């Protein structure tokens, strides 16, 4: 049987055997989950309009706050945040690693050329006679060129499992970027809400400073009229000083939050200060989602990433199992050599080998079986991690829903308390002006009013953050945001002429 026929039979048998891929095939973990959420609003049949609104909110939830500035900041953050760009480059790196693994399917070939002088030892008995170079002439000139190639035939699927594992790693890195995007948008929105509420608190503090100044003027007037006393004027001045001092930390917080927002957008801390420090109304709290089936948890990137890591770990079991089976390799060497240029292409100068090699592991002290056990344990850990991620996700959604519903009544009660305190403070000042109550009652009611107004402002912040937390918990916001692909200014294809002709 000639060599060509043997090679044909070997290739045919290899292709048939290549259908055999050892190791377990990935099966998604079927975790039993409830159909809905316990803390969700009372179930009702959602109208098509409500479903459409909810689906839109899942894609661009920040638009539901009806704040153009927030929407603009989100767009700038998606385009400019460096952490997000770094995550994108990690995806590109994972894809390149996957392609490197897939290259094992193809023949690996290198060419060589060389020449020079060599000297052989003559201190060895029975040294073979070298044509054209007897033992009394150990030096020789040699020229050579050739090629070396090797090709592994993936009979038992080791390469396929390796590529599969790297493909799952690519998918996990994509979900990791999406999770980072959600965290980025959540942090940006929370900082923006804090900025607007802090500006509201500064407005409240400024108003209380005005009231305190009126109290100083009133106490001085009463003192001059012989009705008041120096204790009351001192108390009024101390209250004014305290109100002025209380406003300063709020200004510091505004500066710090504007710096944080700028960095999230990939800008220097001071770039957005003039733009963000302009006082604007608070964003509008959106309506609670009209429909909330538990299937929305499939949108959470961390859940999707945990599932992809489980698939990756399952593929790695296959890689470890395939190492127990024979490896089939076809090596090829073509390496003519001679002492003169004209001899290099003569038949006598030809030197080559073409083999079909198979290797079977026999004894490695339990190394390979230990690798299989390690891969199995890692896969089981990944499966359990997936389940824990799902449980944590459900907890976060339930917590966000509970906070949403409970904070509604909390905010309403604080609003009523702030109104009642303001009314009491106004009456106390009038009674003090009429000499019917002392200045202590005025101070008490003013401090109660300030505290109630600040608590109401913080309750508004919590209401806004409840909405942000709920959208983040259900995995909204990453859809429709494509992967940004940035490349180095040097094109690798232009660095080597062979790179344009061959897959290197």
From TrEMBL:
Taxonomy, top ranks, is: Bacteria, Pseudomonadati, Pseudomonadota, Alphaproteobacteria, Acetobacterales
Q: Which keywords fit this entry according to its UniProt record?
A: Lipoprotein, Membrane, Palmitate, Signal, Transmembrane, Transmembrane beta strand
Alphabetized PANTHER family for the sequence: OUTER MEMBRANE CATION EFFLUX PROTEIN
Recorded hits in PROSITE patterns, A to Z, give: PROKAR_LIPOPROTEIN
Q: Which SUPFAM superfamilies match?
A: Outer membrane efflux proteins (OEP) (SSF56954)
Question: One Pfam family this chain carries?
Answer: OEP
Entry keyword Secreted: no
Q: Which residues form the signal peptide?
A: 1-19
Q: What is the designated name of this protein?
A: Multidrug efflux outer membrane protein OprN
Q: Any keyword Signal?
A: yes
Checking InterPro entries in the record gives: MdtP/NodT-like, OMP_efflux
Q: Which GO terms describe its cellular component?
A: plasma membrane
Membrane topology per record: Lipid-anchor
What family name appears in the similarity comment? Belongs to the outer membrane factor (OMF) (TC 1.B.17) family.
Compartment(s): Cell membrane
Q: Which GO terms describe its molecular function?
A: efflux transmembrane transporter activity
């Amino acid at each position: 049987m000639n060599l060509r026929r043997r090679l044909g039979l070997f290739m045919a048998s290899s292709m048939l055997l290549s259908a055999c891929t050892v190791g377990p095939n990935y099966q998604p973990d079927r975790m039993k989950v409830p159909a809905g959420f316990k803390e969700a609003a009372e179930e009702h049949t959602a109208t098509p309009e409500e479903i459409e609104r909810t689906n839109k909110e899942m894609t661009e939830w920040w638009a539901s706050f009806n704040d153009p500035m927030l929407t603009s900041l989100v767009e700038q953050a998606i385009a400019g945040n460096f952490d997000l760009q770094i995550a994108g480059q990690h995806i590109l790196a994972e894809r390149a690693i996957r392609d490197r693994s897939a290259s094992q399917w193809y023949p690996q070939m290198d060419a060589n050329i060389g020449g020079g002088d060599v000297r052989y030892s003559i201190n060895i008995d029975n040294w073979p006679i070298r044509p054209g170079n007897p033992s009394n002439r150990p030096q020789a000139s040699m020229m050579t060129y050739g090629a070396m190639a090797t090709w592994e035939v993936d009979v038992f699927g080791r390469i396929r499992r390796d590529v599969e594992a790297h493909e799952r790693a690519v998918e996990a890195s994509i979900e990791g970027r999406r999770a980072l995007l959600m965290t980025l948008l959540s942090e940006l929105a929370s900082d923006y809400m804090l900025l607007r509420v802090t500006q509201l608190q500064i407005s409240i503090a400024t108003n209380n400073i005005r009231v305190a100044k009126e109290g100083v003027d009133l106490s001085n007037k009463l003192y001059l009229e012989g009705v008041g006393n120096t204790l009351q004027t001192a108390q009024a001045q101390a209250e004014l000083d305290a109100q002025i001092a209380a406003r300063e930390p709020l200004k510091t917080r505004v500066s710090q939050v504007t710096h944080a927002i700028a960095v999230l957008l990939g800008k220097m801390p001071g770039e957005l200060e003039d733009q963000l420090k302009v006082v604007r109304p608070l964003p509008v709290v959106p309506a609670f989602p009209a429909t909330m089936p538990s299937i929305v948890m499939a949108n959470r990137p961390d859940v999707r990433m945990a599932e992809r890591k489980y698939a990756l770990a399952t593929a790695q079991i296959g890689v470890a199992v395939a190492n127990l089976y024979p490896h089939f390799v076809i090596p090829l060497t073509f390496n003519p050599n001679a002492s003169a240029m004209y001899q290099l292409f003569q038949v006598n100068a030809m030197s080559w080998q073409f083999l079909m090699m198979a290797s079977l592991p026999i004894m490695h002290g339990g190394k390979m079986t230990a690798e299989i056990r390690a891969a199995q344990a890692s896969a089981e850990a990944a499966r359990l991690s997936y389940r824990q991620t799902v449980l944590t996700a459900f907890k976060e959604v339930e917590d966000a829903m509970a906070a949403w519903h409970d904070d509604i009544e909390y905010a309403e009660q604080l609003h009523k308390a702030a109104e009642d305190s303001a009314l009491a403070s106004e009456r106390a000042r009038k009674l003090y002006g009429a000499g019917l109550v002392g200045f202590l009652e005025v101070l008490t009611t003013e401090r109660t009013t300030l505290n109630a107004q600040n608590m109401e402002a913080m309750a508004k912040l919590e209401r806004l953050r409840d909405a942000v937390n709920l959208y983040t918990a259900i995995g909204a916001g990453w859809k429709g945001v494509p992967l940004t692909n940035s490349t180095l200014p040097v094109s690798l294809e232009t660095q080597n002429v062979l790179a344009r002709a061959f897959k290197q």
